[in-house]
Write a structure and sequence with these properties.
By secondary structure, this protein is mostly helical. The protein has helices at about 1-15, 45-60, 60-70, 90-95, 110-125, 130-155, 175-180, 185-205, 220-240, 250-265, 345-350, 355-360, 405-420, 420-435, 450-465, 475-480, 505-510, 520, and strands spanning about 15-20, 30, 285-290, 360-370, 375-380, 385-390, 395, 400-405. It has a two-stranded antiparallel ribbon with strand order 1-2. A two-stranded antiparallel sheet has the order 3-8. A two-stranded antiparallel sheet has the order 4-5.
């Protein structure tokens, strides 16, 4: 692929390898010869390359979480934020997809990252310069992350090219090998499952989150692979894509591995919801795998969900819920914050006041009418807000969780609903809900299971409140259904905040998948457009 080949080489040149890796930070420095045979000679080379792979994963974290998992969920405003700034991602949030509006280009630049993984597999699988146990652990990481990337590609595009070799690195110039057509969805899913099994096999019995002192829960681990297996197999049990039909038998596999995550890794829910995202409480008992951010290294971008005290319209002209003047209550002065993303009022309103997640997630701003009554103006996200550093400035360095224990519980609730096990549906939902209400927990907040539809919508509602800003809702709408085996919630009124289905099934069913950009298609004769976007 002409474009993809350029992307791959660019990504390889940009891949940063750690000079040291003995802390939770990804301390990264450049190196420019890891594609050659001369690089792969020592254990330090392999360990440094693993750091670079995780740096690349961090670079893709916003795209994975916000662009792919959040913006299309029907819960973002478009146009202008309550703080007066124009919002970002409006075209994606408005489902404005066609051959000229593709959301992302060049497959989201994921193939460069995949080729970096392929290089590690090619150079290290049979290497004798690294101890067998550590080598196997690293190969468990790499196969797990490759499955993670391909699963994103599968859910976004369906069938995609399967690039598993390193021809572009080893000087292969045969265009018949460099140009790859889209594999069928069934072939892509088979490859994802193969990588997941290899990851498990290589991890073996090593359940530790940090067996080599590299960084606790910020390097891919066996529990992350088992969580991803649960996610992949649940998806495949409910969602048909092209020639790959949903296979309900996959529920059993998903359930077993998620139960393994619950039982085998010493995980537990934090007592308080806000503690999960406390930037001074990283790698806590609830986290399975998270992207690490640190001062003077990288920030998470969530400053784009709050106000700007200089140019914004909220500070000193709005009010807090107690009626007091809104004067930088989140202490963002000097942080460079700017509200480029905002959630709809309807999402804020679904929280009970007694639900501690409400005020741990949102800070609402109000105006006042002539009678001094508060009138809703907008919300700002205070979840995962980082910390005030020693210089008195807010820095956005909260880790970005990809998997945590409450996600496992609610995924098990969804599996239990498919199995018709109402007792387990109640158990898993209430584990999450009871923590959310904390000292306010009372019998009226306890969930009581009903029919399939009632349960499915209750799980979605719980996830809506639990996983704001964590990249879940679009995938939930695509996977979850009103009836067992029925159409996905994205086509239903019940999953919408304004009463209109997020996608019109009659005219927009093809938008479940994303189109390929014209630049990619024009430069690669082997590729075909996603069905439904040909014109």
């Amino acid at each position: 692929m002409k474009i993809s080949k350029i992307t791959i080489f660019t990504s390889l040149l940009m891949l940063l390898i750690a000079a040291t890796s003995c802390s939770d930070k990804l301390e990264l420095g450049p190196i420019d010869y890891y594609g050659s045979e001369s690089y792969w000679k020592t254990e330090a080379h392999a360990e440094g390359y693993i750091d670079g792979i995780h740096k690349h994963l961090r670079d893709a974290a916003w795209q994975h979480t916000i662009v792919f998992g959040e913006l299309r969920g029907g819960h973002y405003i478009t146009g202008t934020s309550g703080d007066g700034s124009s919002v970002s991602g409006g075209s994606i949030a408005s489902q404005n997809f066609d051959a000229n509006n593709t959301g992302v280009s060049k497959f989201g630049d994921l193939y460069g990252r995949i080729t970096n993984l392929n290089l590690f597999i090619a150079r290290v699988t049979d290497a004798d310069f690294i101890g067998e146990a550590k080598k196997n652990y690293f190969l468990g990481i790499v196969h797990g992350i490759r499955a993670f990337y391909y699963f994103d590609l599968y859910r976004i595009y369906g069938g995609v090219p399967l690039r598993l070799g390193i021809e572009v690195i080893d000087g292969e110039l045969d265009p018949t090998k460099l140009y790859l057509p889209r594999a069928t969805p069934a072939e892509v899913m088979t490859q994802i499952k193969s990588d997941l099994q290899k990851s498990l096999d290589y991890f073996g019995t090593v359940n530790s989150f940090n067996p080599y002192g590299m960084g606790n829960k910020v390097y891919w681990n066996k529990a992350a692979t088992e969580a991803l297996i649960g996610e992949v197999y649940l998806w495949n049990s409910k969602v048909s894509t092209g020639n790959n039909s949903a296979n309900e038998a996959d529920l059993t596999v998903a359930k077993q591995h998620l139960l393994n995550v619950v039982n085998n890794y010493g995980l537990s829910l934090q007592n308080n919801f806000e503690d999960v995202f406390d930037a001074r409480n990283k790698a806590n008992s609830e986290i399975i795998f998270a992207i690490r951010f640190a001062e003077n290294e990288a920030s998470n971008g969530f400053g784009q969900y709050v106000y700007n005290i200089g140019t914004g319209q909220t500070t000193n002209s709005s009010y807090l819920e107690d009626g007091s003047l809104f004067v930088d209550p989140l202490q963002v002065a000097g942080s460079g914050s700017m509200q480029r993303y905002e959630y709809k009022e309807e999402l804020f309103r679904v929280f009970d006041i007694e639900d501690n997640r409400r005020d741990a997630t949102f800070l609402a701003a109000y105006t006042k009418d002539e009678e001094e009554n508060l009138v809703y103006r907008g919300t700002h996200v205070r979840k995962n807000i980082g910390l005030i550093n020693n210089s008195g400035n807010r820095i956005w360095i909260g880790d970005m969780p990809f998997y945590r224990l409450s996600w496992v519980y609610l995924t098990l609730a969804e599996i239990a609903n498919m199995e018709g096990d109402n007792d387990k549906v109640e158990e898993y939902i209430n584990l999450v809900r009871e923590r959310a209400y904390g000292e306010n927990w009372a019998p009226e907040f306890e969930f009581e299971a009903g029919d399939f539809t009632t349960n499915e919508l209750a799980i979605l509602a719980e996830k809506d409140k639990e996983f704001v800003q964590e990249g879940q809702r679009w995938w939930d709408l695509r996977r979850m259904t009103l009836t067992k085996g029925g159409k996905p919630l994205v086509f239903t009124q019940q999953a919408s905040f304004n009463g209109d289905p997020i996608l019109n099934e009659a005219t927009e069913a093809h938008k479940l998948l994303w189109p390929l950009d014209r630049g990619l298609l024009d430069n690669d004769d082997a590729l075909e457009q996603t069905p439904g976007y040909e014109n």
